Amino acid sequence: MILFLTLVYQCALLLVVSPLLLGIIARTKARFAGRVGPPLLQPYWDLLRLLGKGAVYSRTTTWLFRAGPMVSLAALFTAGLLVPFGGLQAPLGFSGDLLLFIGLLALSRFATVLAALDTGSSFEGMGASREVTFAALAEPTLAVSLLVLAKGAGHLSLSGILGASLVQAWAEAGPALALVAAGLGICFLTENCRMPVDDPTTHLELTMIHEVMVLDHSGPDFAFILHGAAMKLMVLGAVLVRLVLPVEGVPAGQAAFLTGLVVLAVAVGVLESALARLRLLFIPQFLVAAAVLAAFGVVIVLR
Amino acid sequence: MSAFLLVALAAQAAGAVLGFLLARSRPEWAARAAAGGAALGAVAGLLPTTAVVLTGEAVSLRLPWSLVAGEFPIDFHLAVDPLSAVFLLAILPLSALTSLYGVESLSSHAGHGGSRSQGAAHLFFNLLVAAMVLVVTARNAVLFLLAWEVMALSSFFLIAYDHEREEVREAGRIYLLATHLGTAFLFVLFAVLGGCARSYDFDDFAALGGLSSGLAGALFLLAVVGFGSKAGLVPFHVWLPHAYPAAPSHVSALLSGAMSKTGIYGLCRILLFLGPPGGWWGYVLLGLGLASALVGVLFALAQQDLKRLLAYSSVENLGLVAMGLGLGLLGRSAGLPVLAALGFAAALVHCVNHAFMKGLLFLGAGAVVSATGTRRLDRLGGLLQRMPWTGALFCLGAAAMAGIPPLNGFVSEWLLLSALFEAALRHPIIPAFVCLVGVPGLAAVAGLAAACFAKGFGIAFCGQARGEAAAGARECGPGMRRPMVVLAGACATLGLLPWLGVGLVFPAVAQLEAAPGLSSDWLSPALAQLRAVGLLLTVLLAALVGLVALRKRLLAGRDVREAGTWGCGFTLPTPRMQYSGSSFSRPLGLLTRVVLGLRSRSTPPVGYFPSQAAFASSTTDLAEARLYTPLFAWVGRRVEALRWLQQGRIQLYLLYIFVTLVALLLWQAIA
């Protein structure tokens, strides 16, 4: 029964609440730029408008292009059901699920990349090339960070490593967890295509990574992509927030978790307003730095 | 049951002979006879194999044979035990399917229509399959080496099939040299084992037990070099990127999918003879495996030739198998049965999975080559529209190879990663190595493999045709399509039912753990987790079906238009402006140029109206350029003095053999 309630709660957060994070980021950035900014609920209106539209497809594309957004969204949604939201047992979590979590993220990326290549556009090919490059560099950090957490908790499930034992783990191996949190933070920014790795606002520029891959999508397909981006923000954010804010108890834990997500969104907005995007040449160094942070975390845990 | 093994071998032999004899008079019948022999042989062989997998009990056959090696009599001793069965599960179905595919692909093999050479192809193909079956079932060292040699020679003739082309002859030469150098180590290995056991029978080897740790270690290293060179582990892999692309595609599929696995089989078999493993053995295999995986995937990513890309990817995947074996050995030597079970299971499951997915990809590449006449990625493109079946099947294979759920590649990667995590969490000594090298290394390999197959599939099949050849491509016929469909079905089934693969290798894992019967507890957590993975994959599919239905409803009756690809304001894009394969992999290539030996030459466009510009890039295999080329040049200079022995006259060689025989008889008489 509890598991069913969590399932409903988590589905609601993923499906309904996640676009709000995009709205908070946009509002924060607008405030920093001295503008009023769009309403907080603007992403919802965008989604509804896109879902109500028809679609335009390139003559070059095939079923692969049409399947990309759906596969990507389905994978992210499934991955979201493996992550514990603020100390609750994840509705579909099991021992070993963190390896599946990594796999599902890879599936979502692979589908997006192939859909981009299907258009035959040089811009989208460029975006796809950069996406796989940075993903290959970010993946070791993600794996090592999860390993440090798993070693601390002695579990192989996300619910286990982000569960009640986290408070104890901070007391015992605080520095390691801090390093891991920093590494995961960089992963979070990379995977969600945020500053300083990617610039989600500069449309039609050569500098983008993720946005450029979805140039040709329109209508409901683009709505799926937008919703997927929001979901990914929430799913990876959930891991990060829970790691940094491990509060015990259901009401207090959920309050801390939801507040943490809002704070994270605001922080992303602040970061995007304050930072410029790194030059492409420096992004690998940035990602290697993240891997090194996580590796130091391992060293501390091993001692 | 064991008689079916003989039936299988006989069917292969009959197919080989009929294929060879009929090739001249009735080429179509010859091809069908050869494929029929292979298929019949596979069915006959799969009967005892299935029985062994289901019951876990070995089936054996021993016939007296009037062959004597030294003072030891040799029996014609065959057996299928769980370990052999796992490899037969890879070899038999793949050989039948590739052989059926060959019926159509060989007849359309452009420019090489000599019917005699087709007869040779049938002969050596079936001979290769029979030799592989014999290799994994032989229970006598002499019989094993005979089969090993037949396998090496018949695959040489298949690799050199298009011998009119210079690069194919070169590939054949390199392969012949490499395989015999590897076999030399095996001769020493089996001679020492035979001397210790006073017999060449594998049963006596297994009963050896009391080898000193130094001798066992030395034998282990001999096996790693000898069998590792067949599997293609770094740095013994240099023949592989030459040989696989040179062979006809259905042969490449068999070589990469099945023959490379015989190296892994040999290694596993020897491990059963050597008693308890030394502590460092696991590190050797883990390190070699990780190096192979990383080097293989980086070179695969940098290739511009579809089949060379697949060949380097074999180096990567056999590296992953070696990593699994290494973790299994570490588990055994440290007394951690769960780790050992996970490691061995990962290795064996990946052997089966890789056979199916790499077989599928090479067959797909063969369809591309026969439709377009080129393997170069920068001449292909847009094939998904023109060859929808091949394209969709290749896409599935590429995703499986990239370790993407819900396909079978993900299952073996999941097992390998859980073995690494298990080692990191429980092993008393190794965590530092595993945590700091193993886990990030495997994660990087997974990410790079995804990049590599996004490139391999995306550049060849997506977008628009980059040349005339690709623009005029036609879908391949049903004879080539059906085997690919079956292989793709196997990949999807093993992926959607993730526990199935572990179930198949379960008895073999128990055998490698050297503790039969006990291991059900050690693998049961992994099996339970894989069942949960299967459940989650159902959720994934359900979500996907829901989205498909939603999209269909939303778009029903709405305005869905077609237009050109959005060019960001540029209105006249041409296919040549697409991102090419080399540009796709360039960021990663530049980051790893030290390993790749990446060189590029370019003539940049000059002026407002540039007349010409050019760009070319290539990679250099470090092991080949720095290790083997200088080594062989040195050896060549040293043995120059013996050149007069080689006159190229057969009478002279007969004389040498005769003189050697007389000398040996004299030595025997005196001693």
Poorly predicted spans of chain A: none
Average pLDDT of chain B: 89
Summed over residues and divided by their number, the pLDDT of chain A gives a mean of 89
Please tell me the total number of domains of chain A.
1
Report the sheet with the most strands of chain B, covering strand number, pairing sense and barrel closure: 2 strands, antiparallel
Characterization of this structure:
Chain A has one domain (2-302). Chain A has 303 residues and is mainly α. Chain A is built from 11 helices and 1 strand, in the order ααβααααααααα. The radius of gyration of chain A is 19 Å and the shape is globular. The N and C termini of chain A lie far apart (42 Å). Chain B is mainly alpha-helical. Chain B folds into 3 domains: 1-212 and 231-273, no CATH class; 294-550, no CATH class; 623-670, no CATH class. Chain B contains 25 helices and 5 strands. Chain B has helices at residues 3-25, 27-55, 82-107, 115-137, 141-159, 166-197, 202-206, 213-231, 240-246, 249-273, 281-302, 306-333, 337-372, 383-386, 388-401, 408-426, 431-461, 468-471, 478-496, 499-512, 520-555, 581-591, 593-596, 622-638, 650-670, and strands spanning 59-69, 72-80, 560-563, 599-603, 614-618. In chain B, the strands form 2 sheets. A two-stranded antiparallel ribbon of chain B has the order 1-2. A two-stranded antiparallel ribbon of chain B has the order 4-5. In chain B, α2 packs antiparallel against α3 (82-107) and α9 (240-246) packs across α12. Chain B is globular, with a radius of gyration of 26 Å. Chains A and B meet through β1, α3, α4, α5 and α9 of A and α15, α16, α17, α21 and β3 of B. β1 (55-58) of chain A pairs parallel with β3 (560-563) of chain B, so a sheet runs across the interface.
Short account of what is shown:
Chain A has 303 residues and is mainly alpha-helical. Chain A has 11 helices and 1 strand; from the N terminus they run ααβααααααααα. Chain A has one domain (2-302).
